[in-house]
Specification:
heterodimer, A: 548 residues, alpha/beta, FAD/NAD(P)-binding domain, five-stranded parallel β-sheet, 30 strands, globular, B: alpha/beta, 6 domains, 25 helices, 39 strands, 22% strand, binds flavin-adenine dinucleotide, FAD (chain B), Rhodanese-like_dom_sf (chain B), oxidoreductase (chain B), TusA-like (chain B), FAD-dependent oxidoreductase (chain B)
Chain lengths: 548, 822
Amino acid sequence: MKYVIIGGVAGGMSAATRLRRLNEEAEIIVLERGPYVSFANCGLPYFIGGVIKERSKLLVQTAEKLYQRFRLDVRTKSEVTRIDREQKKVIIDHNGKSYEETYDVLILSTGARPMRPPIEGIDQADHLFTLRDVPDAEHIVQYLQQHKVDHAVIIGAGFIGIEMAENLAEHGLKVTIVEREHQVLPPLDPEMAIVVEAELKKHGIEVLKGKTVTGFDENGSILVLDDGMRKKTDLTLLSVGVVPESSLAEQAGLALGIRRSISVNDHLQTSDSNIYAIGDAIEVAQTVGGRPAVIPLASPANRQGRMVADILSGMKRSYKGTLGTSIVKAFDLSAAVTGLSEKLLQRFNIPYEALHTSPPDHASYYPGSAQMTLKLLFDPESGKVLGAQAVGKKGVDKTIDVLATAIHGQMTVNDLTELELAYAPPFNSAKAPVNLIGYASANLLDGNVQNVQWNEVDQLVKQGEMLIDVRTEQEYGNGTIQGAVNIPLDDLRERLSEIPKIRDLIVTCQVGLRGYLAARILAQNGYSVKNLDGGYKLYSSVFPEIVK
Amino acid sequence: MKQRIIIVGGVAGGASVATRLRRLSEDNEIVMYEKGTYISFANCGLPYYVGGTILEKDALLVESVENMVKEFNIEVHNNREVVNVDPEKHIITVKNVLNGEAATDHYDRLILSTGAKPIVPKIQGLDQADNVFSVRNIPDVERIKNYIDAHIVHKAAVIGGGFIGLEMTENLADLGLEVTLVEASPQVMAPLDFEMAQFAHEQIELHGVQLILNDGVARFSDNGKTVVLSSGKEIDTDLTVMAIGVLPDSTLAQKVGVKTGIKGAIVVNEHFETNVPDIFAIGDVIEVKDFITGTPTLIPLAGPANRQGRFLADYLNGLDAKNPPVQGTAVAKVFALTVATTGKNERLLNQAGIAYQVVHLHPNSHAGYYPGAAPIELKVIYGEHGKILGAQAIGTEGVDKRIDMISAVMRLNGSVEDLQLIEVAYAPPYASAKDPINYAGYIAADQRQGLVKTIEWHEVDALIEKQAYFLDVRESFELAAGKLPGSHHIPRGELRGRMAELPKEQPIYVYCSVGLRGYNAARILALNGFEVYNLDGGLKTYEQAKYETGQMKTQPHLAAQSGSDSTTAQQAPQCTKIEVDACGLQCPGPILKVKQSMEKMNKGDILQVQASDFGFHKDIVAWANATGNQLLTNDIVGNKVVATLVKGVKASHDDAAHTLQAAPDTGGATTMVVFDGDLDKAIATFIIATGSAAMGKPVTLFFTFWGLNIIKRHANTKISKSGTDKLFSMMLPKSADHLPLSRMNMGGIGPKMIKKVMADKNVDSLAVMIERAKQLGVKMVACTMSMDLMGVAREEIIDGVEFGGVASYLGEAAKSNVNLFI
Ligand SMILES: Cc1cc2nc3c(=O)[nH]c(=O)nc-3n(C[C@H](O)[C@H](O)[C@H](O)COP(=O)(O)OP(=O)(O)OC[C@H]3O[C@@H](n4cnc5c(N)ncnc54)[C@H](O)[C@@H]3O)c2cc1C
Ligand SMILES: Cc1cc2nc3c(=O)[nH]c(=O)nc-3n(C[C@H](O)[C@H](O)[C@H](O)COP(=O)(O)OP(=O)(O)OC[C@H]3O[C@@H](n4cnc5c(N)ncnc54)[C@H](O)[C@@H]3O)c2cc1C
């Protein structure tokens, strides 16, 4: 058997090594366009920032080692320029020379490349960079070493954009982020992203939201934004997303899916039964909801690489879908997401219920605990978990990973309450954040409480609903939501007479817990009451200018 | 209908049920009786209050009495012990513990959340001791703190190596006390299996705690100042903490006819109902259903107690809630380590007669190239259909996260297949693209599919005894840190070319350091028709399981130094100090890094290296010993090992400087230092040597360390040797006939030269080449200093070799224009 693999990084190399471990005899050729294989792309921003000091640490394997350990025929600087499906061969360009290699099975793991929108002046722009591979990172590092760079502009506030903003800022640069959407980190919902935005600003990064770059002036030294603003820059990073690298597949006439990704069936097989495809270049089904998507992440790419090798070696496997669990560090914060966001649920018209909590990552009496903001999205009928997001200093990855596990297991919010998570004060609370949000969601599901969201409350107050802030007088004095009256929780039972029964009520507290207690008291006393989900904390983080 | 619900016990379970009851119903009267002064306090924080990590007592008070009353409208009676119940009349009798007054109260529903109490056995001398404490509540820890403040306390003893015992050990050590931990069973932390507990044992000893296993307390003497153990051993102590476990606190329940089971725990049905109408029970005092076996068991943990409180309130308010079976997921901090477990361990599965398989692995907490990565010692146990039965994890980073995910997978009755598919949040600071739990799933799935057969660490010794064929597939340099006696060595990269050396008629047991290369090698061999087994968890698991307690010097943070001349470091103040960060590298990574750095250094230079793999602490001792580099310090600093070494310091006795000055300026000589004993290097050495000599140049070969193997006689020279020397010669090849092969480069000359020779010559030719070299007048010098270190006697070296120190090499080197280090 002769396997030819195009692309020698995450997906490609996983497939190649696994194929070898399963088949000692097979001929396995890996063709990689770039100078390195199996490098750690995800470490590149940290290499640029100097957090990772040695470049060698990023180069996980070399062609020689791969030959020696796995008898893999790895050829770098070898670009496949054409696939000849008829004759089952590929045409390869190596240092300007072209040659052919036949295959029995071809695996495409060509990845995704940074998007490069046709902005005016882009081709004349100097010091404009994208970041995908080691040479890209080296260019940036060299540029930083050889030029006086004071101000960097990052176009696009996705995961890579945020990581680069942090790393360039740590380098001492003044950094500006320009983002077309009205929030940073578009995979997150806006009220979660705003916490990250605040962290970026806290570290001196300028964030320009809702703005697009429309032109590069003066050879790229000036960025022109759609509102006419002209921004000077010494170094510009274009990180506005990636597109599946599918031109080879397209030329070969393979079926394509959304955003020109390569279509595969659940055996990761393309429309040509001798050609398989994996990684960032393919279309996958979303685990939640089953819709087609392109999800360019390392862990699915690795998993698919391994799985395609298993399938080709006759094992029973099928690729069911990708959840899209991802995480990014932004200075002291971590922001993570799994499953579908509220935005996507809305776009897909999937019914959902949303809930926010602010639990400490571990027992607050043990030093070092920090509150995170946690959001859960679940089916209002079945209680099935649809998605989750978390932002905070600690415990974010753990919380989202447990929730990703829960979604994988099709758990409901009731199941979350039963999860037994490791507890001792330095690590968790006896009621872990995941348990707590399960409890709170189960309350909603059971009808013990009704919620309103941060973006609904103003409208309802305008319509005449009464907003009661149940925090202490002092907390209330430090700032509240416009129109709120103060009745502290501890006094509520005694002061019920002050509250007119005819009005619909909204209660709010700091994070939602006391509001929930108040809502229970009021509901049991015959009031129609809703609790402001996430409380004042969430509301004021989204609308810092509205609260007094 | 309005009800009066009385709760006995106002802490974890009691407070949970009370507050939830209120949230679900404003009407009911909710009444709490607590024998102690405090309600709803954080028991789990108590040890840290003793140690001063938690500074304020108030921090331990989760809900005050006042808050319970005001915010939740709960009637709270603290300092009141419920001493009797009349189930017929629904009346309780309450004693005021402050003044002894009695009172009664009426209930519609009674909830017992009376917890578990420390076991305090009747031990001789205990009554006379005023310095023995147990830890259950705030007054207990205040007593300990007061005792420490009021007395001169240098030494402490902790009896019992469970979670509480270990937390107390750490916190007392944090106070600067000299702590002895006594545990009656062979290991601490019963939820761990032995080989995993060994990581904790080492950690405890690394922090200067004296650990005594397999020994219990027989009696106290000297008013508690001496603890006498069953073995007769005596321990001096100023303060003793008894933490030998807890028993359900069910005195009240038993008195009123509530049915009890294991160790007096209250028997309840899935709705927390006891056999007595209207009496319910939750928390540490009840029997729960074991998640794996379905049988009743005791799991005294805060998470379940809280959950049960809530679920009982739900049930009492007509919501659908049942007491879920309990896995027993737990975690504890043990100095720099986090130790976490879920489900069953091997010991319990064996007892229950449940068949299982295990995998051990040592993956990094997150991408090794991102700072702060550290290995996680992970063990996953699975049964039929790959269903996960339990997991154990130990490390400094990311341990709790992995156990939580595995615990969640178990809740789903998930299998190792599920572990493969869990999509974790990956970016370099948090995980790896293939997360540790994915890896565990991959390895287990391969095992299940028969792709690899494994043996466990505890099977190794018996196999060695039976002279099984063990194949070490690590790189040559790793052998210095130890290997299995009698094992054969072919580095993984050379395996395909050297399969002819392996026996076909006998199973081959492959191993490497952590199991991964062993797995790859096992696949190669299996696909080539060998019967092959891989050592699960590699040498690391095996060696850790063999860890011997009590060998470490008790001096905290400082481990044994190799060699006695520790003054040499000060002798060389002008030498450079090089710092190397080997964190995130898994063994043998740190050793390799040290080796590479040392190669670039000059004699007397100092290397400081830090590693996040605690295994490095042992490895570096062995390596320094074997290579003649001196280990100055080897400390645990936070969650890292920090070691400093001096390069080749022992050679400093030789008067090198003098020789150098005396060196004449003759050109054209060739000097080679032969450091490694690999076959290809040996051949290359002699090719170059004979080549140069044939061209009429004077040639000196200086054999050091493993290079000495090349010039050993055939194995029949038997010389009597003492302890460590024996150990080394066991690890060393016997002579030139037994040399391993390396992948040497030598700036490009090596491989090219070897290629041709290797093609038509076999091992014998080396002996022939040595003879020819001698005839051509090649001078061969064996380094006496490294002979000493490697335990090689003069008698073992072939004839015609001179003996000399480093100085003789330097002398020759100064005369030469070609100096090679091989
Ligand atoms: C800066 C950066 C940070 C990232 N951080 C994270 C992160 O924190 N977490 C995460 O989950 N993911 C992260 N990712 C995404 C992750 O790296 C990818 O999802 C993953 O590498 C995809 O694997 P792949 O095999 O599909 O493609 P790639 O790893 O991109 O490999 C494709 C390879 O194919 C080669 N190739 C393409 N066409 C040809 C051809 N015609 N001939 C020969 N070779 C060809 C390319 O040169 C490329 O090397 C990051 C990516 C980048 C760039
Ligand atoms: C030092 C320590 C550390 C711990 N660390 C952890 C940890 O890290 N993680 C973990 O999961 N668990 C830990 N635990 C265990 C955890 O605290 C218990 O599982 C949990 O508190 C059990 O709750 P409970 O309500 O059943 O009993 P408890 O919390 O023990 O409450 C029982 C209460 O009932 C009272 N009481 C008993 N009888 C009567 C009576 N007749 N009348 C009135 N009152 C009565 C007692 O005074 C006691 O206050 C720890 C326990 C201790 C002691």
